[in-house]
Every structure is written in structure tokens, then in C-alpha cells.
Amino acid sequence: MGAGTGSYEPSHTVLAVEPSSVMTAQRPAGSAPAVEASAESIPLADDTADAVTALLTMHHWSDLEAGIGELRRIARQRIVILTFDPDISRRFWLLAEYLPGAAAVDDTRAVTVDRLATLLGGARIETVPVPHDCSDGFLAAFWRRPEAYLDPQVRAGISLFAQTSDTVIQPGLARLSEDLSCGQRHQRHAHLLDRDTPDAGHRLLVADL
Q1: Where are the alpha helices (DSSP H) in the chain?
Q2: CATH domain 86-109+129-198 topology
Q3: What are the domain boundaries of the chain?
Q4: What is the pTM (predicted TM-score) of this model?
Q5: DSSP 8-state secondary structure symbol assigned to residue 201
Q6: Per-residue b/e over 65-77, b at no fewer than 16 CB within 10 Å?
Q7: Same topology for domains 1-84 and 86-109+129-198, yes or no?
Q8: Would you say 39 and 71 are in contact if contact means Cβ atoms under 8 Å apart?
Q9: Which of 39, 88, 127, 137 has the highest local Cβ count within 10 Å?
Q10: Contact 71, 46 (CB under 8 A)
């Protein structure tokens, strides 16, 4: 669910569900077939899928309860959700020090892990560390590569930047640029250079039905 361009799909995915035609048009050749629909109204029969995944998508849904209800309706065996814990993610240095206004906007969409687990009827919760050389481009992926956040192409692939106004974003990015130029940012976060996989708040929820 919320398959987007197919970046997160395992090779054995049989069907992708994505509401955006712009996203589905970017799916590479050979991807699983896609149906254009939202999480709140999935055009599939009950118990259609062995397993359903929803990866870094729930904060975009308009009705969380309806969406989770639909996942439970179509999944026979398992639901797997990758999300983030807002209490931890808002402490990420980029948000805490440079983009607190953007963090406040993101908080309005964030879903607590405990709430998700409750809606799923119980779930195993696992911490998902982010490696320093993560090849994906989500918000915390560049935690040890701060210069990347100044690249418009990088920011274009991060929903927080796409959905937050420039009046909120640009002052913080300007301060980050200045701190990188004078070395203050590296001095303040030198301890990160010795870390490989910090906890940026990402959580995997696995619900066996």
C-alpha cells in the first residue's frame, strides 16, 4: 500500500496500490502491476493477499483508522508497516536545530507507534537503524552527510520538504549552510562520525493475523 514508484517493493510483490498517477507512471518496467487507489478504499476482496506492506506512507493517509481497517480486511496472514516514532524523529539534529517549524508541521501528520499497534490488534515492534551510507533518500538517510540536505535534488525526494513552505524551510537551510562552511556543525556533531547506525526513530511493526 502506498507503493509509489516501487522503491521499497520486494521482488515477489504481486500487486501495488498507489493513489498517485504521477508516482505509478514512474514505476520501472517489470514492476508489479499497480492499481490506482487509496488506503482508505482498496478495491480488493476480503482476504485477497497473504501479506500486505505499508512502508513510510501512513502519515500521508487522510483516515488512519479506515486505512488500517482496509489492510486488515484484505490481508490473510500478515501486515508489515514501516513507520517512524515522532517522539524520536523530532530529536533528529536537522529538525531539532535547523527546521523546528518543519518538525511542527510533520507532527500534525505523525502517528504514534503505540496507536498503530493498537489499531492492528497487536504487533511486534522492531527498531530499524539507518546506516550512514543508506542508499535511500528519506529524511534521516543523510544523518552523517549533512551537505546532502542543501541539494535541491535530494530534498525533492523527501516529503517533508515537498509539503512544507519555503518560508519555513529556507532560513534553516541557510543556517545549516553557514554552520557547514565555518565548521560549527561538524564540531557540534563530531561524535556522529564514529557511529554507523543510529536510531532515527524508524520502526517496523509486524502483525500476524
Answers
A1: 21-24, 64-74, 86-89, 93, 100-107, 113-119, 152-156, 159-162, 166-182, 184-188
A2: Rossmann fold (3.40.50)
A3: 1-84, 86-109+129-198
A4: 0.88
A5: S
A6: eebbebbbebbee
A7: yes
A8: yes
A9: 39
A10: no
Per the CB < 8 A criterion, the answer to whether 161 and 99 are in contact is no
Residues paired with 169 in a beta bridge: none
Rg of the chain (C-alpha set): 18
| 21-54 as b/e: b if 16+ CB within 10 A | eebbeebeeeeeebeeebbbebeeeeeebebbbb
Contact 51, 171 (CB under 8 A): no
Chain centroid to CA 98: how far? Answer: 20
pLDDT digits 0-9 by tens, 100-129: 998 887 677 788 999 999 999 999 999 999
Q: Can you give 147-196 as a three-state secondary structure string?
A: HHHHCHHHHHCCHHHHCCCHHHHHHHHHHHHHHHHHCHHHHHCHHHHHCC
Domain 1-84 top-level CATH class: alpha beta
Question: Grid coordinates in use for 23?
Answer: 508516482
Q: Dump pLDDT digits (tens) for 158-209.
A: 888 988 999 999 999 999 999 999 999 999 999 998 888 889 999 999 999 9
Mean pLDDT of 29-40: 94
Closest CA to 116 of 18, 1, 204, 16: 204
